[in-house]
Amino acid sequence: MTREAEALLLPLDGGSLPDRSVIGGKAWSIARMRALGLPVPPAFVITTACCRAYLAAGQAFPDGLMDAVRGALAEIEAATGRRFGQGPQALLLSVRSGAAISMPGMMDTVLNLGISDATEAALAAETGDARFARDTHRRFLEMYGRIVLKAAVPDLDPAAAPADWRAAVAKAAGREVPDDPWVQLEAAIRAVFDSWDGRRARRYRAHHGIPDDLGTAVTIQAMVFGNADQESGTGVLFSRNPLTGAAEPYGEFLACAQGEDVVSGAHTPEPLSAMADHHPALHEELLQAAAVLERENGDVQDIEFTVERGRLFLLQSRSAKRAARAAVNIAVDMVHEGRITAAQALDRISAEQVRQLLRPRLKPGADGQAELLCSGEAASPGVGAGLVVTDSDRAEELSEQDQEVVLVRPSTSPDDVHGMIVAKAVVTAQGGSTSHAAVVSRALGVPCVVGCGADALAGLEDREITVDGDKGRIYAGRLAIEAPDIRADTHLRQLQDWAVEAVGMQVIPLDAAPADALDLDGQPGGEDAETATLLLRGVRAAKGGVFGTDAGVQAAVDAGVELIAVPQVLPALLAAHAARHGGVDSAGAGAGGDQTDE
């Protein structure tokens, strides 16, 4: 085991680049950005090994952890000229999770940690803005109560006093928020570690086949404040459009706000062009940083950023979660641009992503006479129809009864993921294209429309609707649909040409199967790939619906079959490629790569 893998924590100063498995994707991106000379607040990371040791010991910190944290925090104090939890220039912290494999929105984050009545007063005196200091205090108490104390804390009245806020949190949680910043910090670290084993994280890992024994890192970073004044703000930038794959910047910006305001879906931000209008120089600086990060990482980037009093800070950059359409277009375009090879493009596209693109869509004219119930922002493409449910638990229950459902919520949170997984589509009243609902829906390949407005969605429960995630529209009833034609899609055709050259197995349409092909329609496949492999031993050619699954194709590869005839050629080719080359590259898998991390 390397010294880094054994460490309790590591600095993120850009001097070294530890392995993602040790520090998680978020911390890795911070170290990478600092090495590139980009503007990033100082930070350190508690390693995934520390999390594993904590869980194995029954939620007990490894010996010496908090002493190591104190030493690392002293380095941040020296870099910023601030003191943690003390005036006259108080240092506040963000405490964020970060697994080696991105799990967007599944684990916990605490912002503004270290604030108290005393540090609020110091912050107000330093900035000359009591409003900003009070707003920061309220945000911390809400988040600490919900994340660390695990309480159903109501939204706190911005006009109330901190004592009233603390009383409301104590009433909801049954215990008070501590004033001591070190007690706050230790409890927040525990909360992030514990969130690795939370219900939503376990379900997400099970759905995506992510191992349970990886653990999460904890990134501790100096806060920068997008809510400081009207010259401040926060946003998310994609270096390419995550819906279509268009080679142009795409994102959102919210003035005088913190990052959680954007990703929670509780606020509807403006398009990134608003930042260009108000802060043209910072907008250009952001685009230049995005170009550097895309070039250095070889993939489309999802960048979280904050502007504090006219100064840009990058908080995280990662390979972006993207819709299936965008994943295909980006991979093919990057080959043509000379950024990646055709083999790398095939590694980045999963069979399931192409199956999503080949799923039925609205027939031309089907929406002409349909009743348009409402519209919003198209956040994840595709068409889904079903019974409207407004509760994720009920969505899961009805799905287990073979009922197709559409999840309609004011906004989604990590607690809704189990309902989103089973839904045919997701619709929200609030939020934009970088909200939790949008990002997770793209990762799941579920059609999604966001920002429809509360009034537009009222009264839809238990109605049958059709959701068009391509156009951002919601219709009454179930509309007519059709399957797309791969021959009309230049990107899919190009991908298929590369796959034919790369895959040693011949894959042809089902209706072109040779007479001697073994017919496996109705035979074991899917979860019982081992049985299918046995049936295929010594077989030269085979056909059947069993090869409509990755496991069925894997069985044919394992058995050495030379030819398979399948319902859809390209997904089978990609499944065969993945079977021969060890799966899909995480940079492009799962409707893309990442957001709102971990």
TrEMBL record:
The molecular function terms of the Gene Ontology recorded here are:
pyruvate, phosphate dikinase activity
Its keywords, alphabetically, are: Pyruvate, Transferase
Offer one Pfam family short name for this entry: PPDK_N
Gene3D superfamilies of this UniProt entry?
1.20.80.30, ATP-grasp fold, A domain, ATP-grasp fold, B domain, Phosphohistidine domain, Pyruvate Phosphate Dikinase, domain 2
Residue span(s) of domain Pyruvate phosphate dikinase AMP/ATP-binding:
60-280
How far does the signal peptide extend, from start to end residue? none
* Domain of life assignment: Bacteria
UniProt protein name: Pyruvate, phosphate dikinase
Enzyme Commission numbers on file: 2.7.9.1
Signal in keyword set: no
**PEP-utilising enzyme mobile domain: residues covered:** 403-472
Species this protein is from: Marinibaculum pumilum
